[in-house]
Every structure is written in C-alpha cells, then in structure tokens.
Amino acid sequence: MRPSVRGVLLDDDERLVLFRRTVPGRDVYWSVPGGHVEPEDGSLVGTLRRELLEELGATVFGVTPLITVSYAWKDAVKTQHVFGCRLASMDPELRHGPEFEDPSRGVYEVVRVPLDRAEITTRHLVPEAVADYLSSAITHLPRLIGQDA
Fold first, then answer.
1. Of 74, 78, 107, 114, whose CB count within 10 A is highest?
2. pLDDT tens digits for 80-126?
3. Closest Cα to residue 4, out of 40, 45, 35, 43?
C-alpha cells in the first residue's frame, strides 16, 4: 500500500485547518488534509505540498516532520507521515483533482478550529492514529511546527 502524508496546518491565528467530510451514505467525519504519495513525487515534503495545493489551494512554510503512524487498513498496513506546517496562502479557486471533479466523493468543507483538545476528541477525526496524536499534542503544536518562511 502506498504511503500517505498529512498536513497539520496552522493558520495565522494558530487555528488548525481541517476538512469536514460529507460523503453520501456515510456519517460525517473530519480529516487532516493530505493524500497518497504518487510515483512522480520527488519526496514526502513534495507530496505534502502537492496535496495541500490540490485540496486547499494552499502554500505553506515551516514544514516540520511530527510523527509517522502505521495501522491496519483493508488487509494491509497503511503508513502516514504527518507533518506540521504553517499556512502562507490559500485560494479555494486553485483546488483541483478527483475530490472536486466527482460529486460522488462528497464535500470537502474547510474548517478552522482552535488548538483545544476537545476540538479533536469531540469530532470523528480519521484516521484514528492521527486523531490520537493530535489529541495529545494539540496545545504544543505552535512550538513543534517551524516558523521559517
């Protein structure tokens, strides 16, 4: 199974940027932006930058490795490399890819939440391994994520 990246993204007000996912036939859930590594991606950070541009129209700075999590998924092991980063810009008009071209994939609503543990524990945030990390590290994120522009 191809590895994935996730971007724990903080905006200028140090709020966490999440997706509220509404998919036909499923309960609403939340996720941190990111996606699978593609063969043409030169690095994990390159994958992260590509995914954030596709999903959010975002550019970022201060990219910082936070944790790598692995868990059972569909008779395999899924690995996700979680990076912290800071939002430089976001233009929803730049969003593109299958997530936005195929209505059956549902809605990706961008939501910004305060860095409070309850913001994680009261939402159905997936994958659970990333939610567990965030619930323990949420208030420390501003110190963990780089400041370099």
1. 78
2. 999 999 999 999 999 988 877 877 888 889 999 999 999 999 999 99
3. 35
